[in-house]
Amino acid sequence: MAHLELDNISAAYGKLRVLDGIDISVGSGETVGLIGPSGSGKSTILRVLTGLLKPEAGQVRVGGEPINFDKPAEIRRLRDRAAIVFQQYNLFQNLTVLENVMIAPTKVRGRKPRDVRPEAEHLLAKVGLADKINSYPDQLSGGQQQRVAIARGLCLKPEILLLDEVTAALDPELVSEVLDTIRGLAEDGMTMLIVSHEMGFIREISARVAFMADGKVVELGSPAQIFDAPEKERTRDFVGKILRH
Amino acid sequence: MSELADLLTYYNVIFLLKGMATTFALSALGCILGGLFGTALAVARLTTGPLTLPLRALALVFTEFFRRVPFLVTLMLCFFIFQFSGLDVSTFTVGCVTVVLIGTAFLAEIVRAGLQSVHPNQWHAAETMNFTLLQTIRYVVLPQAWTVILPPAFGFFILFIKDSALASQIGVIELTYVGKVFNNRGFSAGVSFGVILVAYFMLSYPLSRLGAKLEKKLGSSRTR
Amino acid sequence: MDYTFQYGQVWPYVPYLLKGAWLSLQIAFLAFCGGMLIGTACAAVKTFGSGWMRHGVNAYVVFFVNTPQLVQIYFLYFALPDMGIFLSSYMAVLLGMTLNAGAYLTEIQRAGFESRRQSEMEAAEVLGFSRWQQIRYVILPHVAKVLFPPLSNHYILMTLGTSMAAIFGVEELTGRAFNINSETFRSLEVFSIVAVIYVVVTLAASVLLALFGRFAFRAKMRVV
Fold it and tell me: What residue stretch is flagged as signal peptide (chain B) (predicted)?
């Protein structure tokens, strides 16, 4: 059964319609990739799924339960179940690496710091930052900060991890360390929805890939279909341009 | 010069120092209590949703009103309100209420500007992790905003030292009032108010130098 | 508090008060213009002048910024006659406010001058702009954009500051409030109406200045 379902979702910034009838589902333990040109609405989907933007129409279901975006309690519940990692990491600049990872579980969820701390340290070790737990974000490279952000998301024990162009702001030589971390999560069976421009990576890691343009899902299929034998003209154009580089 | 020597007797100097202390206390109180209330107003203005709309409106009207009414007029309003209420309070209390009202309005704007100076992505990250508004402000935003808030807040404190001179109008025995007393005792206006100008300068100048140093230090420090 | 508001007795005085408000605006405008002349000259001296001139300007600015305007005017009004200089209360207030404004506006403008961007001037030089063209097309538009918001802000503060003219018997808005108060004894009614007039007048000024700033200099300005 699909764990996360978007059913005919539409959304707008003011009068500008940015999502127009989106249907996407992510199965339990599945990784789905979202690709498409800038402004196609990929990141907007993640904003809807984290309650930062209210959809105008359609339904989001998590584990079969529909989310009512008019009820703050249901948005809070959605945010408990889906964690997001941002393009710009968005680490709290005033907190150390360990504090960044621990603050939401302890202060928001009210868990005891002594219970959370081993989990946080374990996650930071897993993303390869065991020796940086007392550093501040501005003392780390972009790749290191992004790995902290991933650990911060994971420490909330989300059912779904949303990744929003997590390598787009990184220097080229730092991209692979972050991709390795995500690859590890996929192997562990994490349910993920990934927006990315790293086509090779999306192809390798995703069970299914959605190509988006102008707020619509143009084509949804296996990586092999999307990248090697796209059915739609738009997809062929886009993939053709990307792969030529 | 001999008139100046006549004025600076032991008791007059004590009187002058007490006036300085009162002026300082008035501004400090206005800034400390005004800072607390002002922070509350600034937070109130950042709330969202229809439930807190009256709160936002009230905070907006309060800050705009007290920032757009002259000190002297606010002072007279407070003075007459206390007079007609029949409460027997000292003029010093009336002065304190006035400076707290005005301080609250101005510091609310300074704090609000500080909170808004923190990058939106910090707010978003906290929001998606289910922080409440107060948790976001307490754990994430204020720790990053205080270096932006402190220099203008300190600047306002120094400004207040001079603005509070108007409290002398209702008889608060602060520095300016001391000058008027000297003048009434027969010392020339030049010497009486000259001494008072120097006393204000001695109060304000070191603080403004300190403020400039503070601004420089905070400006170059990291956000934490 | 069992006070009944009786605005009926005070309403007929509103046109009289509005004329006072007009005088307040005039005082603020004249003092601001005078202050701009002084401030521009002093800022130029501070930026380009020689050593001793800069010291002179510094002494002037530091003294006026660190002492209260009220006591400065006391000094002008009560102490200058001892030296044979007689100023009317209106002139004393205007002179005091102008000198005070000059000091603050020096500081504001100097910060504006210093915000000239080296990279833009280098670009202009590389493009073959003459010195005058650099000033006309690069420096002035930038400085105007940076300076307009804080200057507007100071103008509003000065409008509020004119209320202290009442203490010297000038019949501007606050002065007229005191007059009506001593005739009718409806203190709260009078001063609350006067407060609202100040709010409306300064709000209107803020809106006009913000519109002008956006239109003329593309300066980013908020009213509330």
Answer: none
